[in-house]
Amino acid sequence: MMPLSTQSLFELYDVDETAWLDAMAELIVHGRFEELDYTHLSEFLSDMACRERREVANRLAILIAHLLKWTYQPDKRTGSWRRSIVVQRQALQRLLESRVLRNFGEEVLSDAYSNGLEQASAETNLDDGTFPAECPWTLDRLLSPDLLVD
Fold this sequence. Notes:
By secondary structure, this protein is mostly helical. It has helices at 6-15, 17-29, 38-72, 79-95, 99-124, 139-143. Helices cover 71% and strands 0% of the residues. Helix 1 crosses helix 2 (17-29), helix 3 (38-72) runs antiparallel to helix 4 and helix 3 packs across helix 5 (99-124). The model has no long low-confidence stretch (mean pLDDT 91).
């Protein structure tokens, strides 16, 4: 790897984030820690953690919204609804393989339920009171492959 100045790493971050990440990884592999762009590296890692937490919360809300529609509108069930539930569940399973993100999923389950409830109510035109006030599913149940088994 060609040596990069701190200035060019700063510029690279703004121009091509992927190339910047490759450069950071290369510096780490070669033990050239003093050349790392710590300012942007810290920012990038914080942003990445926020994105992952936001993705967990959003996917939980979407999964819950689809499950509420599935449960409270059985006559409108379609293969597309089933697929959406399976896709969200599988994506969550992958995300929650991380113990930290799994703990976060447990922490935000109640808020995700509120968001999913609002989405389901808006999509179905059913009153919020139609649905349970509290989330009827545990995180383990939401991640279970037999989630849709009646």
